[in-house]
């Protein structure tokens, strides 16, 4: 086999972008897909969450864009893919669970509206995914981070279904459920209406509506799209 045929038979390491609103199933699909392909799964939201946690710990204002960028520049935010799932490290400390809590969730949504914060995040995310062989998920991966991604998926679902999924995932019931649902709707609104990189499907994204689909069915559809690109 000469070099050329060898190169041709090596599967291309694709860059795959998965965007969409909270509760559409992005994280699960992205991590299952990455595992199947032997790719790295990078969850960009975890980076916004890590910075939000730092802002909470340092008592920084969520509205002070310049202070938040300074905070980011002085932070070490690492996404560490492991077999058991992804770990997020902030300044060397594992904050994977802490960043899922309600206060951090709310703060992440607020700090992510700032253009300069987003610029900083996008630059880091591009570095992390530079080699290909990556499934990155978020809100602006197909539109800003990797506008030339090999495959762009926009995963959506009916808002009521997304809220229900979130409640089941986080085992939330009763009175708390109503306020958590209201918070999710507010974050959705903020994501879609912010001036800097609002949540929209890239014009060349494949939109998958998962309202009536199981996780396995969504994954099968995405795998089919990956095969077409490989
Ligand atoms: O995906 P997530 O819920 O972990 O994201 C946390 C917050 O970060 C969410 O409110 C929107 C924001 N985010 C963003 O603006 N852009 C991304 N690429 C990922 C997340």
Structural class: alpha/beta
Order of helices and strands: HEHEHHEEEHHEHEHHEH
Provide the gyration radius in Å: 18 Å
Percent of sequence in beta strands: 15-25%
Number of helices: 10
Number of strands: 8
State the separation between the terminal residues, measured CA to CA: 21 Å
- Cofactors and ligands present? 2'-deoxycytidine-5'-monophosphate
Count of discrete domains: 1
Order of adjacent strands in the largest pleated sheet = 2-6-1-7-8
CATH architecture descriptor name: 3-Layer(aba) Sandwich
Short descriptors:
51% helix; 10 helices; 3-stranded antiparallel beta sheet; Rossmann fold; binds 2'-deoxycytidine-5'-monophosphate; disordered N terminus; 5-stranded parallel beta sheet; alpha/beta
Question: How does this structure look, described?
Answer:
Helices cover 51% and strands 17% of the residues. It has 230 residues and is of the alpha/beta class. It has one domain (15-219): P-loop containing nucleotide triphosphate hydrolases (Rossmann fold, 3-Layer(aba) Sandwich), CATH 3.40.50. Strands 2-6-1-7-8 form a five-stranded parallel sheet. A three-stranded antiparallel sheet has the order 3-4-5. Helix 3 packs across helix 5 and helix 8 packs across helix 9 (174-193). Mean pLDDT is 92; it is low at 1-6. 2'-deoxycytidine-5'-monophosphate binds next to helix 3, helix 5 and helix 9. The site of 2'-deoxycytidine-5'-monophosphate has 13 residues, from helix 3, helix 5 and helix 9.
């Amino acid at each position: 086999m000469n070099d050329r045929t060898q190169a041709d038979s090596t599967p291309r390491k694709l860059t795959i972008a998965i965007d969409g609103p909270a509760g559409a199933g992005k994280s699960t699909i992205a991590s299952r897909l990455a595992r199947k392909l032997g790719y790295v799964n990078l969850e960009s939201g975890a980076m916004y969450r890590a910075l939000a946690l730092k802002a909470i710990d340092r008592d920084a204002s969520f509205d002070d864009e310049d202070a938040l960028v300074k905070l980011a520049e002085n932070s070490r935010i690492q996404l560490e893919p492991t077999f058991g799932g992804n770990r997020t490290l902030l300044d060397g400390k594992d904050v994977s669970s802490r960043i899922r809590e309600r206060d951090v969730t709310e703060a992440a949504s607020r700090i992510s509206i700032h253009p300069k914060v987003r610029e900083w995040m996008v630059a880091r995310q591009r570095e992390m995914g530079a080699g290909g062989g990556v499934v990155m998920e978020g809100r602006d991966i197909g539109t800003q981070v990797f506008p030339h991604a090999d495959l762009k998926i926009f995963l959506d679902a009916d808002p009521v279904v997304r809220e229900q999924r979130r409640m089941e995932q986080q085992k939330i019931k009763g009175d708390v459920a109503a306020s958590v649902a209201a918070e999710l709707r507010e974050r959705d609104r903020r994501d879609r209406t912010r001036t800097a990189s609002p949540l929209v499907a890239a014009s060349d994204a494949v939109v998958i509506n998962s309202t009536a689909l199981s996780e396995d069915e969504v994954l099968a559809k995405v795998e089919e799209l990956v095969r077409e690109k490989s």
